Amino acid sequence: MQVSSLNEVKIYSLSAGRSLPEWLSDRKKRALQKKDVDIRRRIELIQDFEMPTVSTKIKVSRDGQYIMAVGTYKPRVRCYDTYQLSQKFERCLDSEVVTFEILSDDYSKIVFLQCGRFVEFHSQHGHYYRTRIPKFGRDFSYHYPSCDLYFVGASSEVYRLNLEQGRFLNSLQTEASESNVCDINPVHFLFAMGTAEGKVECWDPRTRNRVGLLDCALSSVTADTEIDGLPSISALTFDGALNMAVGTSTGQVLLYDLRSSNPLIVKDHHYGLPIKSIQFQRQLDLIISADSRIIKMWNKDTGKIFTSVEPEHGINDVCLYPNSGMLMTANEAPKMNIYYIPVLGPAPKWCSFLDNLTEELEENPESTVYDDYKFVTRKDLENLGLAHLIGSTLLRAYMHGFFMDIRLYHKAKMMANPFAYEEYRREKIRQKIEETRAQRVQLKKLPKVNKELALKLIEEEGEEQQITRKRKQKNLPSLLKDDRFKVMFENPDFQVDEQSEEFRLLNPLVSKISEKRKRKLKILEELEAKGEEEEEEPEGKASDAESSESSDDEKGWVEEVRKQRKLLRQEEKLKRRERSKEDQQTLLKPQFFEIKEGEEFRSFKDSAKKQKLMNANLQEPESIFVLIFQSEQQRKQQEAEKLHRQERKTLRRSASHLKSKRGRGRLFC
């Protein structure tokens, strides 16, 4: 329950806080109340006291048991039973309701004036009858002695519908072009209507003649008021036999005595908005006037403000519950507000527990900090040069400091520190720079082994994190932090050899990506060496261009494989030439070897002979030397034969491939 105070008048907002959806089960509602403190502390005085979108009018029946409200969308009326503290029924209508009136003591007889010139009658069971008036209506009043309904609207005539006879009677012809509001005095049944020209015409229903005319537009303009156009009458209410309050479209409220043509008092709301509703509070002699922004309560004799209520949303209508301090409003929002002001009167009998609740809150007051005030200490006042204000009305002592008006605080701060804006601007620029730095590539220590592979994994992890954030998935574990692959970045034996034939044939596209990664590695190493804090992005093409280059089609991949094979062949040819040059440079000298007595020389290929030579004693160095020399010669000869065979095979394959292509081309031709 939200509590506010103005002029030492406490106002309790009983509809503050979040409302729970209707479709929630009781179990889920109880669970939310246990978890959320705000939901647990809120007071739901009447269950589902709201409209789907907007509420336009709200009224209380004469017996005080039923509260009726109309709103949109779709157009509907809802009736709430105060004894059950819940909704009694809901009826949907064909068009929006301009205004309505409860003719009986309860909800059994209701009249609705709708937008499409329709007048709809409802009984206790529901819709009863529907008729239409000649012009668009804006307001109507019920004359109880004659059972006549008086309709005013976009016409100079006042239409009369007799509910006893069930027919229209002769209308009243007025001097106004249009009429906005009307009302009937509950004591002597004088009929009054407010016109678009800012006048109030009074008629006697018995003789059907005009008995008075008040020019409220002229009387509402004073020396202090500022108006943009001609004020029209937007609200009209009688109080007793002699008093009448009139509200204008420019935000003034005029209080008249019917015996005088001059207003007793003129009260300006100072917002320039039309007055929506006027209520009289007889116990304290107050007038409650409301426009779409604020509800003001002021003394009808002096015009002094008693208190005011400023809801969060625009106000459409205000209803004061009879003989109590409860105030209800229809707003430009789904929820209808309920306010309880103990000073105006006690709580209604169906919610008498509010009196005990407010008494407990007053016994245990909570310290409140207002948004319009700034808390400052004595040291802050000395820094601002406002220490001389201690003890004056501009400072309010509180705990170890003072409360002062926030506007005064800002002015004093500007005078004490005129360069505060420059400091604020520098701080904002620094924050923006820090935000842009956070988006850059952060400097990370790369391992000594497989640096390019580690950089590749870091880039892939960043891309995966962006994808998982969009899809709201869990992040996968990093290979760099996994203990199973830790040795791969520490042991030099696991270093990837990018110059090997297998690596180049299996990864034909790695060359371009690795070049870019090498550039990045060089920049990282330079930054590590210099010890700079900021990291500059490597010069080159944008990320979009790099991604487009890396995503080559199948033809590009085949061409890259062919290029790699050509390069490998050229490298092999160069190696052979170098070997042949080395062989030519080295002159082979003839060497003679002695064979042991009793041994026959057959061939070095003989396995038995080789085994014997391998098992030769250390005392026979000549035989061991023969074995080493012969094995070296055989190995070189075998390598040369293998290379020769591979070249012949590749040549045969390329020739057969070209022949097959030519044959296919001839067939298709």
Automatic annotation (TrEMBL):
<dbReference type="InterPro" id="IPR036322">
    <property type="entry name" value="WD40_repeat_dom_sf"/>
</dbReference>
<dbReference type="InterPro" id="IPR040382">
    <property type="entry name" value="NOL10/Enp2"/>
</dbReference>
<dbReference type="Pfam" id="PF08159">
    <property type="entry name" value="NUC153"/>
</dbReference>
<feature type="domain" description="Nucleolar protein 10-like N-terminal">
    <location>
        <begin position="1"/>
        <end position="364"/>
    </location>
</feature>
<dbReference type="Pfam" id="PF23097">
    <property type="entry name" value="NOL10_2nd"/>
</dbReference>
<dbReference type="InterPro" id="IPR056550">
    <property type="entry name" value="NOL10_2nd"/>
</dbReference>
<keyword id="KW-0677">Repeat</keyword>
<keyword id="KW-0175">Coiled coil</keyword>
<keyword id="KW-0853">WD repeat</keyword>
<protein>
    <recommendedName>
        <fullName>Nucleolar protein 10</fullName>
    </recommendedName>
</protein>
<dbReference type="InterPro" id="IPR056551">
    <property type="entry name" value="Beta-prop_NOL10_N"/>
</dbReference>
<feature type="region of interest" description="Disordered">
    <location>
        <begin position="636"/>
        <end position="669"/>
    </location>
</feature>
<dbReference type="GO" id="GO:0032040">
    <property type="term" value="C:small-subunit processome"/>
</dbReference>
<dbReference type="GO" id="GO:0030686">
    <property type="term" value="C:90S preribosome"/>
</dbReference>
<comment type="similarity">
    <text>Belongs to the WD repeat NOL10/ENP2 family.</text>
</comment>
<feature type="domain" description="Nucleolar protein 10-like second">
    <location>
        <begin position="369"/>
        <end position="417"/>
    </location>
</feature>
<dbReference type="Pfam" id="PF23098">
    <property type="entry name" value="Beta-prop_NOL10_N"/>
</dbReference>
<feature type="region of interest" description="Disordered">
    <location>
        <begin position="529"/>
        <end position="557"/>
    </location>
</feature>
<feature type="domain" description="NUC153">
    <location>
        <begin position="482"/>
        <end position="508"/>
    </location>
</feature>
<feature type="compositionally biased region" description="Basic residues">
    <location>
        <begin position="645"/>
        <end position="669"/>
    </location>
</feature>
<dbReference type="InterPro" id="IPR015943">
    <property type="entry name" value="WD40/YVTN_repeat-like_dom_sf"/>
</dbReference>
<dbReference type="InterPro" id="IPR012580">
    <property type="entry name" value="NUC153"/>
</dbReference>
<dbReference type="GO" id="GO:0000462">
    <property type="term" value="P:maturation of SSU-rRNA from tricistronic rRNA transcript (SSU-rRNA, 5.8S rRNA, LSU-rRNA)"/>
</dbReference>
<keyword id="KW-0539">Nucleus</keyword>
